[in-house]
Specification:
The structure is a homodimer of 311-residue chains.
Chain A: E1 2-7, H1 11-22, E2 28-31, H2 58-62, H3 65-70, E3 75-77, E4 81-86, E5 92-96, E6 101-109, E7 113-115, E8 131-132, H4 135-138, E9 146-150, H5 154-164, E10 169-173, H6 183-190, E11 195-198, E12 202-209, E13 212-220, E14 223-227, E15 231-234, E16 238-240, E17 275-277, H7 289-310
Parallel strand pairs in A: 1-2, 1-6, 2-3, 6-17, 8-15, 9-10, 9-15, 10-11
Antiparallel strand pairs in A: 4-5, 5-6, 7-16, 12-13, 13-14
Chain lengths: 311, 311
Amino acid sequence: MLDVAIIGGGPAGLTAGLYATRGGLKNVTMFEKGMPGGQIMNSSEIENYPGVSQVMSGMDLMASWPEQCQRFGLKHEMVNVEKVSRNKNGTFTIHKDDGSTEDALSVIVGTGSTPKRAGFKGEAEFFGKGVSTCATCDGFFYKNKEVTVIGGGDTALEEAVYLAGICSKVYLVHRREEFRAAPSTVERAKNTENIEFVLNSKPDEVFGDMMGVQGIKVATPEGIRQLDTTGVFIFVGNDVNNGVLKDENGNFICDVTEWGEVVVDLKMKTSVDGLFATGDMRLDAPKQVVVAAGDGATAAIGAISYVMEHK
Amino acid sequence: MLDVAIIGGGPAGLTAGLYATRGGLKNVTMFEKGMPGGQIMNSSEIENYPGVSQVMSGMDLMASWPEQCQRFGLKHEMVNVEKVSRNKNGTFTIHKDDGSTEDALSVIVGTGSTPKRAGFKGEAEFFGKGVSTCATCDGFFYKNKEVTVIGGGDTALEEAVYLAGICSKVYLVHRREEFRAAPSTVERAKNTENIEFVLNSKPDEVFGDMMGVQGIKVATPEGIRQLDTTGVFIFVGNDVNNGVLKDENGNFICDVTEWGEVVVDLKMKTSVDGLFATGDMRLDAPKQVVVAAGDGATAAIGAISYVMEHK
């Protein structure tokens, strides 16, 4: 029986492992099929993780984490978890994709979320080299430059306004005339001088060279229009990686929002005792490395207390 | 008019400054009379800030933060803030101890909390050299060793149980026979084998040498008893540094708990629009550098959105 099973090996899972083992728990396993580090590993530049002042790649930022977080006894099992189920006695069972299972007193989930792709030429090729899905992370790299935003929902319009505060101009490319975003958000975007709306239009191709994006071609009602922006931000939705929390009938074992984000309180507790959710998958996540790491620490402190009580 | 006024220069305030300025706000000032870095600067060893894998002093950990967090235009004003008041038009006024004031659209408070002293000989002298007020931070340094805990409230008993999971033995020194802690918490501590209760007893003197604490003398009903523990953890209460949020009648301008912690949601929003609270002063704070830093990032993202809407 594990004290704590940690599902996911990003900043949240790693930090949870550090705090849980350093806090005295002996049987703590982090389940992560890939290399630990999480989504930030795909980022070419990060400069807003406090305490790491050099600008570096996400891979370099995360390089020291596994050793640091595992030095107190955290085990890492390289396997995918398919499902977490809760047993009648309050313990949990971890169902792995190799068909085996493991029981745990407490579970910390941090499986992240995956931004949806818009599906145009060059999008994958230039991801992290000018194509971004995070304005807070990458907006500053386009200070006083022009950028393009793709999307028409709340996030797209909010992030367009955010980028308008940093960049000289924001082109907002949206495939319809109308917006799904809340009217007040649309209003705020429309009142922002340096946002130009490019409506009824679809991205056709992002192009560039070895240095990154040089521009984007957009199919407008008047024909192809070329926007020479070196930054292209895509906000067309987000898949929360919450599949491990679904039972065999497809129902979630804990409360989630209509968007699939796991509902937590300030202690990262879910609606189920002993189950914690952290990082990009939880309600109101700002999707930043430092916040995910903080979530992991918070959840581990709660899990230790839970385990000491129920052991 | 400031976009954001940040009160306090610890990990929360510094990170809030980094995110607010890097997020495009031009007028952001952090008010901190002392050297930025916060309470962790008094710590002799920290090894659980993810991404900084060497064990180092709190002062060394924080050394790079001010430059990193100020490189995007954060201003630092070396002055104490006495009070934050809210104006009828929704803006805030910062009242400084030099008598001057400054107006701000949004305020992020991160003034921390101060653990109370028990008041015995050697307590201040050996603080950070064996005397600690944080089990999560320092417990691991006493792995498989004996430690002493001072206090009889919920925190003291919870932390004693936490330490019992790491240390070989925990002496719990409490001045009374009865506990203020919740009965279930007392029960859990009593059921923990390696906790020895030393009741009706008061710490008299902690002693040691250049290397740190060597033991503590406790006044018991049977006379002075010497506990040869190199770690002494004090949990006799906590003063939340919330004075800046009191109006001239001593009433708080936002919701606080009966312990004085500022009530926030997952976005670090207080009950007052445009006012955010972060770090050790907020509800359910785990009092860890990485969590405070995460709070600062979260609050700044919220403040940017608030400022863009109200400017």
